[in-house]
Every structure is written in C-alpha cells, then in structure tokens.
Amino acid sequence: MAFVKDMLRMWAHSWKRFISIAMITLLGVAVLTGIYAGCRDAFRSTDRFFDAQGLHDVQVLSTAGLSNGDIAALRKVNGVAKVQAERSQEVTFDLDGRKSATMQEIGTNGIDQPYLQEGRMPKKAGEIAVTRKFIRDSGKHIGSRLTVTPESASSDTSDTSDTNGADGTNETNGTDEAPSFPTKLTIVGVVLDPQNLSNPDGYSAMTSFRSTATTDYTFFAPSDGVTGTLYTSATLLVKGAAAESTFDESYENTVKQVTDRIDGTVKTDRQKARRQELLDAGNKKIVDARAEADKKFADAQSQIDANRQQFNQQVDQIVDMQASAAAANAGAAAAAGAPNAAAAAGTNAPNPQLDETTRETMRETIIDASPELTQAKQQLDQAQSQLNEQKASTEQTLKTKENELKTSIPQVRWYVQDRQSLGGFSALKSDLDSIQSLGNAFPIVFLLVAVMMSLTAMARMVEEDRSLIGTYVGLGYGRLAVASRYLLFALLACLIGGGLGLIAGFLGIPAFLLVVLQGMYVMPGLRLEYDWLYGSLGIALFVVGVLAATIYACVQEMRQTPAALMRPKAPRAGSRILLERIRPVWNRIGFLGKVTARNIFRFKSRLIMTVGGVAGCTALIVCGLAINDTVADLGIKQYRDIYQYDLMVVSDDSDASAMRTKVASDGRVTSSLDVRIESGDLTVAGSGDGDSGKAGSSGSESIQLVAVPEKHLSDLGEMVTLQPVSSGILGTSGVGKTGSLKLDDDGVIVAQSAASALGVKAGSKVRLTNGDGVQATAKVGAVNRNLIGSDVYVSETYYAKLFDSKDAKNTKSSEDSEALTWNAMLAKLSGSDTSQTDYAESLEEDSSVMKAVSCAHMADSFKFDLMGAVVALIVALAGGLALVVLFTLANTNVSERVREMATLKVLGFFDREVHHYVNREMMILTVMGVILGLPLGRLVGGMLTMALNMPSLYFEVEVKPLSYVIAAVATMAFALLVQLFVNPVLDRIDPISSLKSVE
Question: What distance in Å separates the CA atoms of residue 859 and residue 645, rounded to the nearest whole number?
C-alpha cells in the first residue's frame, strides 16, 4: 500500500511531465485520426449516395451509337447486374448569350438517378429537372419555361451521318433514329446530378480549370416525349460492386473484371456487327435509291413516249390530209381534159396511201415548215436526251457509292469507361486522396517527436528517482514492479491524451474539414463516424512508442546494482569542446559564454533532443507553409508566366469565322494565333492494342488538345512559354531554357501536369482521344512546363496523321486547303487587367462565342480552398507541438540542473541573471533547431507536395522567404513564451534545500 501511495505521490509531483506526454499524444493522435476520419467520412457518405442513386459502374459509348442488339449483348456479360440504355441530346438556348445543355433522359432501370433537392421529378413530356447551377446562373425558378434548339450534331453518336459516310443515314437497318427531345420545356424540379457533386453555391465555383463538362448544364427529362431508338450510351451496374467502397482498390478490381470481359468478348463482336449493320443500311438505301430512280425514269420515259406518239399522230394527220388533197387535185385535172377518161377513172381512182420514204420526206417537210412543230420536236428530243443523261449519271453515282461504301464507313469503336472518367468523381477522389496522403505523412513526424520527448522526460524522471529505485530494489521489490511506476505513468498519460486526441480527431478536425469540403462539393447524408479499430490502433501506436522510450530509460538505470543506484550519479566528466581549440574566438568569449558553450555541447543527449525536437516542429511549420505557397502561386505562374496570351476564345465550328471576325473588329487584339481546341483524353499506351477504347482507367487524364496550324508552329512560343522539363531526384523536375522547345510533326508536347500524373516522359507512347472520340497512338516529343490544366499541343500535320483527317494529309503541299476548323483563338490584348477581364465577359455575350477566358482574371481568382484549410490546420497543430516540445525540454532542463541553479544563487546571482543564464542556452539550442529545421522543412515539404497527385495540377514547390521568416519567428516566439512559464520555476528554487546532500 505504501508503494502505491508513494507512486501516486510521485505522479502528482510530476504533473508537468504528465501533461507534456498527454499533450504530445493528443496532438499526434488528433493528426493521425483527424484528417483520416474527415476524408473517410466524406468517402463513406459519398459512397452511400452513389449506391442510393445508382451511379453507374461502367459506361459504354460508341462512335456509331448503340442499338438494341448492343444492349442485349451487354446484358449477357457475366458479372453485369443491370444495363440501362440512355438517350441524350445536346441543345442550345439563349441565356445572356448562347449556352449549351445536355438533355438527359432519366433512366427507368434505377441507374444514374438524379437526387431531388426541390420541387418534384418530371413525369410528362416537356417537363424537366435542372441543377442548382442553372437556377443560380439563369435566375429562373420552378415553373419557369424555356425553349431550346437541338444542335445539328448532338449526341455522342457523332450524328452517325459522319460515321455512315456516303449513305448519309443515321439509321440502323433503316429503323434506328437518333434521340430527339421536346423543345418547349417547363422546370418542375431542382436536382443534384450524381455524376457531378460540385457545389455551385460554394467557393469552388472559380475552379473552372477542373471542369470536364462539354456543355454548360444538364437537363433531366422523363422518357415521355423522347423519340429515337438509337442510344447515346449504355450504363451498367456490376454485381458485388455496391458492397465495396467505390474509392477502394477492391471496387476497382471488381469493376475491372467486367470491363475486361466487355473488352475481350462483346466489344470486338459488336463493333463488327454494328459496322455491318451500317453497311447493310447503306446498301439497302442504295438499292432503294436505284429502284426509286428506275421507277422515276420509267415514268418519265412513258411520259416522253406518250408525248412523242401524240406528236407523231398530229404530223401523220397533216401528211394524210396533204396526200388526199394532192390526189383530189390530180383527179379533177384529168376529168376536165377527157370526160370519157374521167368516167373511167371514177371506177379506177388512184389510192392516196404513200410509201414510207415519201411519208417520211413529207413529215420532215411539214415539221420544218411549221415553227410550232419544230419547237415541239426539239423539246421532245431534249427531254429524251436529259433523261438519258440522268439515267447514266444516276447509275454512275450509285455504282460509285457502292464502291465507296466500305471505305466511307469507318470502323466502329466502343469506349468502355468506369467512374474514373467522370470529372466530378475523379476530382473529389483526388482531393480526398491528396489530403489523406498529408494525413498519413505528418503523424510520422509527430510520433518521432513524441518518442524523443517521452524519452527525455521519462529518462529524467527515472534519474531523479534513482536513489528511491535503489531502495525499492534493495528492499526486495522486483525491477518490473519498480519500473511499473513509470510505465503506468506513461501509459496513463498516453491513454488520457489519446482519448482526448480521438475526440478531436473524430469530431473536431473532421467537422472542420467537412465544412470546407461542403463548400466545394454537395454530399447529402454526410455524418461523422467513429472507427474503433483505427482509433484504437492510433492510440496503440503512440502508447507503444512512449512505453518503448520509458522502458529504455528504466533499463538504462535499473541495470545497475541497488548500492550504485542509492549513491548520487557521478557528474559527467568535463571535456574540451571544438570551440576551445579555436583560440582567437574562445579567448574573446566571456566566462558565462564559455560555461554556456560547454553546457550545450557537453550534454549531447540534451543537445540532440532539443535541436531535433525544435527542428522537427520547425520543419512541420515550414512544410505547411511550403504547400500553401506552392498552391498560392499556381495561378500566377500559369496564367502570367506560362501563358503569354491574355485571352482565349472558343466557338463552335460553325461560328469560328464569325468569332474571328468579331474579335478582329473590336480592335483590342495586338497579336493572335488561330488554333483548334478539343476536349479529349490521354492514356498511357502499352496496356493494350492501339484500338483499345478503355478510357478513364487509372492511367488516363482529361486533356485539352490544341492543334496548331502548320504555317504558324513557330508562333506558338510567342503565346505559350515552352520549357522542356525532365525528371530529377526524388520526383523533382528540372526545367530547361525558355524557348528551347519547338513543336514539330514528329510528336506531341504534353503538359507537365498530365505527364507527372501518368509517368510520361519524352519518347513515351501515349493514346490520344480527340473531340470526336477517335483514338490514336502518339509519340511524346517533349514535356512542357505546365502547372494548371493538361494541354497537349499537336501540329496540324501530325494531327492529320494521328486521326486520319483526309483533308489535312496534304497541308504542306496545298496552300489553300484548310485541314481543320480553327475554332479557337489565343490573343494578346491591349489595356489593363480589369479591361481585359471586362472584354472577355462581353465576348461571352456574343452568340458566336462559346467561351472566353481572361488569363488576368484566372490569375487573380484562382483558389484552392481545401488545401489552404488543411495547411492552416497542420500549421496550427505544428505550432502547438512546438510549444509543448519547448515546454517539455525547458522543464526537463531545469529539473536536471536544480543544484546548479542553487549554486549560482548562493554565489550571488540575481534572479534575472539566473534567468538569462538558463534561457540563453535554450535560445541557442532553439536557434540551432530552427537553422536545421528550415531546410529540413523545405525538403519534406517538397516531397509531400510532389506526392499530391491531382488531375490537371502539378505542384511546383515554392517556399517564399517570408515563410521561412514566419516559421523561425513562430518557433522563437514559442521559446520566449515558454520562458514566461519557466522563470517562475527558477525563482522558486531554494538554494539550501537544493544543495543538501542527497545522502
């Protein structure tokens, strides 16, 4: 009982150490569990939402649309739970300028169901549900009406007329038609699209660089009123996928098994079958056209024959009349000359019938003599000639179409995509993964500091009780029983600190993170959850580390005999330090300065612990500030340094000429470059054949494909800073000389942001998907410095080579041919940043402009709020750790040197002098820790920043001088603050009692 009472008394006396260990454990457990818990809560709530709304696991697209046969084949694939055929159509409408939207049919099979936020779901033809983004931008409300206009080529089927070539049909076997939606619409509900959880009302609305949508809005309509049997896409749910978390590797493996089966069995067969259907439809149309032409020609020939017969009858009547008249005249003349002969002739009159030669001669004479008959004959002959020419031309055209049909219809391609291809899904996943990676890295530093501080504190605690330990051991207490006094002390401090850390980690930090996340994404059903296993393991990790340090401290003391333990520990032998050997310096140092130098370097364990602890805390602060500086400078570096142009204008292909005319007429442009911009994908080649259509895998990145005219390849460097980059040590990159990179016809230039995410370098082979969904394997000529967005630059000739643009194959030899429609313009503007921003906004109101982006506006408005919030949290926790570490080290330092401080007081040192004597050592050690921690923080910050692998972003590590100053000043401020707590302890030291012999 006395042993227990003494143990409790010892614990109460060491309450400062108890608080230090508990606080370090609290901070460590909070960091370890907090960021993890916040991300996990977001992951779980999003996964539940996706399962509830039936977000598709796999989506199948085709360059020629999908038929009922395709849907039936997908249903037979092993592992497919549900298949939903989907129809959509792109439309435009007037909303402060031309805007586009995707009319999406609400599936009837429970897949990709929109989440109702307000109003009701549409049920009748003409009713739609819209997103909150549209409500915010348009100012409309439930009950408002809207009229839309279908675009000429409006679905992912690429209008199939392009696919079918010469026959120009968008039908399959003459029956399948492209989807068509009602155009007069009424808003009845506001919904959340499960494919895009971005919060339009939050502060993430400015991060448009990460938007992968091809249209401005999505309208959801019921099946009622939708026509067409050709499907835009097919969405699938995979058996067993709902039981897995959509963000886990197990889910990806489950889905991959099904996508591999589709790629291996259904895809090839259905691509061939679909193309054959298109060929059959083309042949049938040619046969029908020939039959219809033959019928029309036969009818025309019959009409000409009837008219000619009527004409011949008219001429024959005239011939007969003239022949009869001639015969009558001849008879009258004969009668007058010989009456008897006339009487005889009355019985033998000549026959007016003419022979064929005479009749034909008379016909020609009559026709020539009559202008009307001549004109009629010419018309009949001309009609016959025209008919013959039409018959020959039609037959030749049909034969040509028959010969060209197979070559004009390209191979049908399927694209099998998973959820990674959804821009909203991949953005959310990458955000959370990146934040979680920070949450996994920082606790390591906290754990190391906790172990170091625990070893320091517990070693001093055991050393103070060495005589008592010797007494207990001498009285027969086992060493384990004696050590349990300190082990239980450390264990209790860890458990209490860890328990409080779990509260902060599973409630406080997640609540803070989720507030920030909800400003970027809409996550219905979000709630905080506790993970017993992870929380227990988090505490256990710190308990093991602290107990290991405590055991080490106990073993170091208790391996001595009880007699040795009961005697005071011999003072450490003095020794010369390196500074003493530098006589010119040492001789100029005062007495107290020499004492301070000897104390600092003689007690090496205290030196290592103090400098290491301070360096670790300083490094954490610098690391957080480094990430913040890196993110803060992204917009400026990209939109002012890399992008040299001031304005990018994009239009539809049909409005490209009008857009250029509009911009030129405004007189604001000082120089410009016409380009073609398409949204596409870049996939690492080598995972399959060149025709593999599996986009959206882990090796895929959404890109902006920029085609540059052949004549103006050298002008690209005036609009965009071209700097080659190469991989360095530990993932760093080296940047080449500005202007040393040129675009040519041998490869593409890939943005550093995409290349870093996919591990692509110069000479690599990649698969590019252009705006029409056509894929091609391309060579990477170089990797260009780029931080925001994933631009891929390609020359006009190489684009033609990759995507088989027939009109572009001879661009070098043909001066007048224009291979591509240059639907975009990069321009430099005159005027201030504000005027450039206003001009871009005014351009967007023009009907010929689809999008106008001002680099000045993007540079000023770029924000990455989630990362900033997490960095602020990490810096605050690192600051708290620094304060606890310095407090622990200062108190340990004082407790070790109580007799020394008492001696100084006896020698006549005033309290302020004692303060200065002790605090000077701590300040010097703190400065040494800061000096070591600043470069260490830069190194660790760089490694962590490069580990943040996010779509369309590359973090070029940047640490501003002010950040180093802030980290150093903050650490020194904490050291000064700790002195305010330590000085009263020094004042309370009693010289008499402290100098009494411990024996």
Answer: 12
> How would residue 415 be classed by pLDDT, with cut points 50, 70 and 90?
confident
- d(CA 357, CA 956) in angstroms, rounded, equals 102
Q: Measuring CA to CA, which residue among 34, 25, 24, 33 is closest to residue 537?
A: 33
Question: What is the maximum alpha-carbon separation in the chain?
Answer: 193
Contact 983, 915 (CB under 8 A): yes
| Pairing assessment for the beta strands 775-784 and 748-751 based on DSSP bridges | parallel
Q: What is the pLDDT of residue 733?
A: 56
- For CA atoms 130, 133, 135, 139, give the dihedral sign: negative
Half-sphere exposure of 177 (CA within 13 A, CB side): 7
Q: Shortest CA distance to 390 belongs to which of 462, 493, 304?
A: 304
Rounded CA separation 447/881 (Å): 11
Residue among 627, 167, 601, 556 nearest 397 (CA): 167
User: Which tokens go with 157?
Assistant: 């089927």
| Bridge partners for 673 per DSSP | 826
Q: Which of 60-64, 669-673, 807-811 has the lowest mean pLDDT?
A: 807-811
742 vs 530, 678, 712, 738, CA distance in Å?
Answer: 55, 21, 12, 10
C-beta separation of 780 from 764 below 8 A:
yes
**C-beta of residue 513 within 8 angstroms of C-beta of residue 870:** yes
Contacts of 184 (CB under 8 A, 6+ apart): 126, 145, 147
- How is residue 995 written in tokens? 């100098």
Which tens digits make up the pLDDT trace of 21-73?
888 888 888 888 888 888 888 888 999 999 999 999 999 988 788 888 899 99
pLDDT, tens digit (0-9, with 9 covering 90-100), for 683-698: 875 444 434 333 333 4
Instruction: Kindly state the tokens that stand for 257.
Output: 């098994």
Rounded Cα distance between 858 and 176, Å, is: 45
Q: pLDDT of 742-787, one tens digit each?
A: 888 889 999 888 888 788 888 888 888 887 767 788 999 999 888 8
- Name the residue with tokens 């010969």: 403
Instruction: Compute how many other C-beta atoms are within 10 angstroms of the C-beta atom of residue 731.
Output: 12
Beta bridge partner(s), residue 829 = 669
Structural tokens at position 381: 């002959």
Q: What residues have CB less than 8 Å from 790, skipping those under 6 apart?
A: 682, 701, 702, 703, 704, 751, 753, 754, 951, 952
User: Which of 149-158, 393-402, 735-744 holds the top average pLDDT?
Assistant: 393-402
In Å, how far are 1, 457, 522 from 461, measured between CA atoms? 22, 6, 52
| Per-residue pLDDT at 221 | 93
Please name the residues in contact with 665: beta carbons below 8 A apart, sequence gap of 6 or more. Answer: none
Question: Which amino acid is present at 679?
Answer: S
Contact predicate 626/942, CB 8 Å: yes
Count Cα neighbours of 907 within 13 Å in the Cβ-side half-sphere. 9
Total residue length of the chain: 999
Report whether 190 contacts 118 (CB < 8 A): yes
Checking if the pLDDT of 238 tops 90, the result is: yes
Cβ atoms of 975 and 618 closer than 8 Å: no
Amino acid 165: pLDDT? 35
Burial profile 611-640: b = 16 or more Cβ within 10 angstroms, e = fewer: bbbbbbbbbbbbbbbbbbbbbbbbbebbbb
Q: How buried is 581 (Cβ within 10 angstroms: 0-12 exposed, 13-18 middle, 19+ buried)?
A: exposed
Close Cβ partners of 88 (under 8 Å, ≥ 6 residues apart): 102, 103, 104, 105, 155, 156, 179, 232, 233
CA atoms within 13 A on the CB side of 584: 0
Backbone angles phi, psi at 704, to 5 degrees: -115, 105
d(CA 126, CA 103): 11
CB 27 within 8 A of CB 501: yes
d(CA 450, CA 28): 8
Rg for the chain (alpha carbons), in Å? Answer: 44
